[in-house]
Amino acid sequence: xxxDITRKPSRSRGTGRAVANxxxxxxxxxxxxxxxxxxxxxxxxxxxxxxxxxxxxxSDLPGDQIRLxxxxxxxxxxxxxxxxxxxxxxxxxxxxxxxxxxxNTIPTAAGLASSASGFAALVLALDDLFQWNSTPRTLSILxxxxxxxAARSIVSGFVEWHAGTHDDGLDSFAESLTDxxxxxxIGLIEVDTRPKPVSSRQAMTDTVNTSFLYSSxxxxxxxxxxxxxxxxxxxxxxxxxxxxxxxxxxxHATMISAWPPILYWSPETIRTLHTIWRLRQEGVPVYVTMxxxxxxxxxxLEDTAPMIREKFPKVRIITPFAPPDPDTL
Length: 329
Ligand code: PMV
Fold this sequence. Notes:
The protein is of the alpha+beta class and 329 residues long. The chain is 33% helix and 23% strand. The chain contains 8 helices and 13 strands. The strands form 3 sheets. Strands 1, 4, 5, 6, 7, 8 and 9 form a 7-stranded mixed β-sheet that branches. Strands 11-12-10-13 form a 4-stranded antiparallel β-sheet. A two-stranded antiparallel ribbon has the order 2-3. It starts with 12 loop residues before the first strand and ends in an 11-residue tail after the last strand. The relative contact order is 0.16. The mean pLDDT is 94. The structure holds (3R)-3-hydroxy-3-methyl-5-(phosphonooxy)pentanoic acid. (3R)-3-hydroxy-3-methyl-5-(phosphonooxy)pentanoic acid is lined by residues 23, 26-28, 42, 115-116, 147-149, 200-201, 291-292.
């Protein structure tokens, strides 16, 4: 794939925009490290309008110039290093530098999937710069090389990333399900937006290598994926919430049982979990999912929104399938 694409720019700048996503059935564990090939398939929902917008061009100066949210990033910053390493795949000449300007509407590296929309937006900007006119499948494969979950940010809505079986990864890509769910809400509760102490890449590797619980993970994913797809098709919210929460907590259980142990939760994470479980006992249909970080995402339906706002004043509510607000068009 990388051998077939042109690296000759067709215009001076390219732009790409991609939405963040949160997995309802998580991608956790790689079968191949370099190509970010996952051990299992996964399923996410996009978090419109949160995401990333990237513009990029080429310069004759060596080294990349990278700006994140208006701030010039030092070349030795981990963010710049990761981006430049990825851009090496697309450099027209070894001496060519990219000028990259990227804006995230989500905190970077806070377990809110900014790398997913970030790499997806970057690939879309490259597609625009070089005028590849690639299919979403190809773009998903390319975005995956930057960050696994970025494969799911090329498209939107409910998205399934097929694990694939080929060594070259050409059958490991994401695509949208046709189903929508207008009343579905995601509530973001930011517990801690500082960069996480252990990257998800490191955490996955340690988990796969040392956790005895990990051996049951692929089996759980098989069952959870099927149950989630049925729940989405039938708009069965309790099934969707139950399966997503069980899946997220099981992923965390595999990390806690790794060595050295990985525990992303803070005391506030645990307090919030207890509040949610108490609300559920009182009959409020709300569930939770979490990525590799301390932050919490609530799953609930539109009619529960007033209650969620009251209980969690700092919640940010996302409605991925709601019709766009005419005022923002
Ligand atoms: O894309 P990565 O390498 O940051 O991994 C993401 C892993 C999780 O967010 C924890 C799960 C997922 O499916 O997004």
